[in-house]
Amino acid sequence: MTATPEIVVGVSGGVDSSVAAWLIAQSGTSLAGLFMRNWAEDDSGDCRAEDDRRDAVAVCGHLGIPFHSRDFSREYWDDVFTHFLAEYRAGRTPNPDVLCNREIKFKSFLNAARELGAEAIATGHYARTAKIGGHWQLLRGRDKGKDQSYFLHQLGQQQLAATRFPIGELEKSEVRRIAHDAGLPTATKKDSTGICFIGERNFREFLGRYLPAQAGEIRSVDGTVLGQHSGVFYYTMGQREGLQIGGVRGREASAWYVVGKDVANNVLYVDQGTDSPFLHSRWLRATAPAWVSGSAPGRVLDCTAKIRYRQHDVPCRLHVLDDEDAIEVTFAEPQRAVTTGQSVVFYLGEACLGGAVIEASDAPMERRLQGNVA
Asked: Model-level pTM?
């Protein structure tokens, strides 16, 4: 009979989760690996789920630990993908990885691990935890270039108490070295990129399978029609690629960027220059806040924030509104391309406090479309 594992490791078939499993195995803790299948295969691209599963099996075999597999594709569709589509349909740009962590990796996976008798789960995320004063904190990973606390900001006390991040103290180069020295089958495997369920495929083509193209006008901020787009939901704030705006008579030769979306009238607004004032905001409003501690860190707080993953956090002042279901953030300096649907995530030093979903900003075109300015 297979011994009941103390920890179940989420083995994705990548090097990070492989090293996480190896580190736990070296500690003498009984463990098992569990592979999550989150997306039902289709014919729209190379999703590589079966290749990843084989690599996960190979890692567990190399470590001599039990392998388990669970299909969470129905949960992913219901709890993540339907929200993803609804947000795009509304003209926002969602971050499915945040919701996937909350609903799948630290809910469905955690429940499956407990069904196997485990006390805790472990993943290959670059993040850390600490228990201070009886409360769990979510901390940045030591490798600042790989830190994934942004994507984990919706985890609460119960989830953090039952989670281990074995590689959180390591740099990526050290993870690769350990994998090589341990002879792990995934030591040289390329890191996965992009949204987890899409795989190696054209994003717009994939999205078009669920949100059919709806052609409309591309206009400059002064209302001049410059061309046509295939659907405002395919574009995001600050985007340059895919606009297909050639030389415009009487205009400079500099690049055009998305600065606003009028979803109701299917109009995409653009302006020239990466530093266009139409791209910058100093204030945002966000809703549905999630706090790592379980409650807001006071009504007013000076801290730092990220409005996207690949960004150094910047100083801001956080105001929690009276109903506690919305917050307002004022930045010390204007921020480029604040994007509705994305997450704003807050930090005090190494600790991630939590975050919320960006609902609105004071970007000039957004205010104009809302009727706040002429």
From this structure: 0.92
